[in-house]
Design brief:
heterodimer, A: about 140 residues, mainly beta, four-stranded mixed β-sheet, four-stranded antiparallel β-sheet, 2 helices, about 5% helix, B: about 475 residues, mainly alpha, three-stranded mixed β-sheet, two-stranded antiparallel ribbon, globular
């Protein structure tokens, strides 16, 4: 993709961080967005979620509109970013290849699994620690 | 098989080809379609092309559910995430705002052939690398650019004899979206319902200001709440409740209420013995199964690969699947049998999730149906409880009458109950309280009561000292 194209066109991304199927917003999560394609390889930005669990709307570079209007174009119709989400007391999560199109406002819903703060009476190790969501599911990969 | 297609509340998606040893995840149907649409097509395409493709995606999913395509073959999911078998679904992916709004508007519609009931298996492919006897995704872009509507595009690919079925009922939902958008200055029952739901949501999402009067009049404070809701949930911010905003409010409200209900219920179970008496497996029916199903559903709320189960106290295939999904998630053998070790593990995880929440539990505010129909001539504590609820609601929803809380079901109470039944347009307008009326009263009471909790730093809906 051509860098000039990149500076002209923008799309936006809002990251919404919750747990319990969207019922509990997570405040103050750290959301770091880094470029995942050649044109944005040095791009990085960090935002924090509000008390409603959402980041501000983040403007991101995107390729020209025409590249997503027909199947055969020289460049991909979207730009790609990786998103790392971290909040105290929750398992960290990374989402790969989030795509941004010119003029489109996207939302990335991120559902986090909480750490256990419960210590069983019989002193067994805390079980929630063994959740392996990352290993079981390929997050956002296409 | 069900008689007529309904829009399911949730759909279980297998993350792989049918025979793959992959996990299942449960999604609301609305979110599932948003995900598929964001995975299958580009959001920069013309609106009519997007709509045509989304109608096809909805129809494919509903066809799989309606015909029980996978379930009847012994699988424990409704559809796969594979485009070789169904349509692409990418767990946890980003959702395009314009696509999501179209889905919120049309997810209660599907394509069918004239004269049949079944949703069309509306096959599609990209039309470049793969062509098929169905909709071409890239072809739909060109047709839309030449001025064709979504329906015309669908007719072009699937024949003139297809029709769109609209406003299909949603499973477990009695209130479909009002036919016209609600805006400032409007009034009525739909406005009132939306106001109560917004207040309930804002108890969990404190950036949304409280609506001071949930009296069914769409005032400035309602508009503020709608705008903030739209901002938080990525909708077009216009302060108007159209179909998309209506269904998004409903979806968030359902999630918030579900969490609240599961939390309140936990208090009841905490008083029961939580030791496992004997192994639980297929065919078991005991208090143990009730608690097991509760643990599973609670864990499923937080851990996406654990499947929820029906809460019927019977250890059937559904519960067995749920137990296996738990075992799979935590790296255990998928036996489907709950022994002491598994029970303890499940309990620890449950307590872990409860402990992780910062919420302060408010004592369960409502009581279950007393088990007898309340009518004129009766007296007792259950009558007094009913009167307390009705007095609380009086003045907060329109059309109600005042009632004294004397524990005697006289003419005045009967009139107040009838007024409630009329105000909500319940099927039985009798002035007597059966389970349905009781649950309706309790549900609204709870919405208004819980919806009234004001968080720190939250705009309370009125000016303090004003």
């Amino acid at each position: 993709m051509n860098k000039n194209e990149n500076t002209v066109h923008r799309g936006t991304l809002t990251v919404s961080v919750t747990s319990a199927e969207g019922a509990l917003p997570i405040e103050n999560a750290t959301v770091t967005i880094t470029g995942a394609d050649a044109a944005n390889s040095d791009f990085t930005v960090t935002k924090y979620t509000s008390r409603d669990g959402v980041t501000p709307t983040i403007s991101l570079p995107a390729p020209s509109y025409e590249f997503s209007q027909s199947p055969e174009t020289p460049y991909a119709g979207f730009s790609s970013f990786d998103v790392d989400v971290y909040a105290a007391n929750y398992y960290r999560k990374k989402i790969y290849s989030v795509s941004v199109f010119p003029g489109v406002n996207s939302t990335l819903p991120v559902s986090l699994v909480p750490y256990s703060r419960y210590v069983p009476e019989n002193n067994m190790p805390q079980d929630s620690g063994s959740i392996d969501i990352e290993g079981g599911i390929s997050e956002g990969e296409k | 098989m069900i008689d007529f297609p309904v829009i399911p509340e949730k759909i279980v998606v297998h993350l792989g080809a049918p025979g793959d040893n992959a996990e299942n995840v449960t999604e609301t149907f609305q979110n599932y379609i948003k995900n598929v649409a964001s995975s299958e097509i580009y959001p920069t395409w013309p609106r009519e092309a997007l709509k045509a493709n989304i109608y096809a995606q909805i129809s494919v999913a509903l066809n799989r559910i309606y015909t029980e395509y996978y379930r009847s073959r012994g699988y424990n999911f409704d559809i796969t995430s594979s485009d070789a078998y169904d349509q692409v679904y990418v767990y946890g992916r980003d959702i395009y705002g314009n696509v999501a709004e179209i889905v919120d508007e049309i997810f209660t519609s599907y394509i069918k052939k004239r004269g049949v009931v079944e949703p069309l298996y509306a096959k599609f492919c990209d039309g470049v690398q793969i062509s098929c006897n169905g909709l071409s995704q890239w072809g739909s872009v060109d047709l839309a650019k030449s001025g064709k509507t979504a329906l015309e595009i669908l007719q072009y690919y699937f024949g003139e004899d297809i029709v769109l079925v609209e406003n299909v009922p949603i499973e477990n939902v009695l209130s479909s979206a009002p036919p016209v958008s609600l805006k400032e200055g409007d009034s009525g029952r739909d406005v009132e319902l939306a106001q109560r739901r917004l207040n309930r949501i804002s108890t969990n999402f404190p950036g949304i200001p409280k609506i001071a009067n949930t009296d069914g009049f769409f005032d400035g404070s309602t508009k503020n709440a709608v705008e903030k809701f739209q901002e938080v949930f990525g909708l077009t911010v216009d302060g108007i409740i159209g179909t998309a905003t209506w269904y998004r409010i409903l979806a968030v409200y359902t999630a918030v209420k579900n969490l609240y209900d599961l939390n309140s219920e936990g208090i009841r179970y905490s008083e029961l013995s939580t030791q496992l008496e004997s192994e639980l497996k297929r065919g078991s029916a005991s208090v143990g199964v009730v608690i097991l199903q509760y643990y599973l559903n609670y864990i499923a709320l937080f851990v996406p690969t654990v499947q929820s189960t029906k809460r019927d106290g019977v250890f059937g295939p559904n519960t067995e699947n749920s137990v296996k999904s738990f075992q799979k998630t935590y790296g255990l053998n998928e036996t489907g049998i709950v022994d002491r070790a598994l029970w303890d593990k499940m309990q620890n995880i449950y307590y872990g999730l409860v402990s992780s929440q910062d919420f302060t539990f408010r004592e369960g505010v409502t009581l279950p149906y007393p088990g007898r129909i309340l009518r004129e001539g009766l007296r007792g504590e259950d009558v007094r409880t009913l009167q307390n609820y009705l007095s609380f609601l009086y003045g907060k929803i329109s059309g109600l009458l005042p009632v004294s809380t004397d524990g005697v079901y006289g003419e005045q109470t009967a009139a107040a109950v009838l007024a409630f039944q009329n105000a909500l347009d319940l099927p039985n307008k009798t002035g007597r309280v059966n389970a349905l009326t009781w649950d309706a009263i309790v549900s609204i009471y709870e919405d208004i009561y819980v919806g009234g909790f004001v968080n720190e730093r939250q705009f309370p809906g009125y000016v303090i000292g004003g």
